[in-house]
Here is the input.
Amino acid sequence: GGYVYSHETRCDGKIVAILPYRYAGETMEFMLRSEVTPCWHPEKEQISSITGGVELDDPIGTAIHELKEEAGYDADADEFISLGTCRGTKSTDTVYYLYMVDCTDKERGEAIGDGSELETLAHCFWTGTIFDVVDPLVYVLHYRLQNYND
Here is the structure.
């Protein structure tokens, strides 16, 4: 029927998205990532969630790895809050596994990255606002956290 969609072969269409949070007094802050995302803009840094292609068909293991690699935080599987899954758009078959993790009392270590050129230029930062973020996953994560019930 002329329908065209994309499939991310690097991760078999499975990605984790993580939005760490912490409390600074009474204020909830979120960790976002500033990085060059070539399909959004070839040179200008964009603000997004922490993401990574699912490895070994293990979304939570990948989330643990990506949090350490990109943000410098260690967390165990039971510290992550699973917020389910979503799809990016109707033009991709990618499934996003959504996670939040409370980093309030965690010490931040070195974000080691994966050694790629673009990742060496990226960095994560804490903020109290998510406005002006171009990554729709940030909004999905934020909304689901605000409406999360144990």
